[in-house]
Specification:
single chain, mainly alpha, 4 helices
């Protein structure tokens, strides 16, 4: 099942990036200077945004693959195939 394999790879990539973010958060939490901690808040939020979007598209891709295994009308199938193509465009930075 290549689709499951692709979803697993995407989930692994997402997990790797999320662990890196958790490490950064842990480092920030031990910083005693709160102003210094907040100095990079914008950069943190900009880095975290793609993780959220990647997670959403991963959920969409899993749903699409599941749904394509069921009986569908041609229009529904075409819509889901289009969704799958868009999900493939979403890449998790890492």
């Amino acid at each position: 099942m290549p689709a499951v394999s692709n979803a697993n790879k995407a989930a692994d990539a997402l997990g790797t990036v999320l662990r890196a973010v958790q490490t950064a958060i842990a480092a920030l939490l031990i910083e005693p200077d709160h102003e210094r901690t907040l100095a990079h808040a914008t950069a943190f939020l900009q880095a975290f945004g793609p993780i959220v979007v990647g997670w959403i598209w991963l959920c969409q891709a899993i749903f699409v693959e599941y749904s394509l295994g069921t009986e569908l009308e041609e229009t529904e199938k075409a819509f889901l195939i289009g969704r799958r193509r868009v999900a493939r465009l979403c890449r998790i930075p890492g």
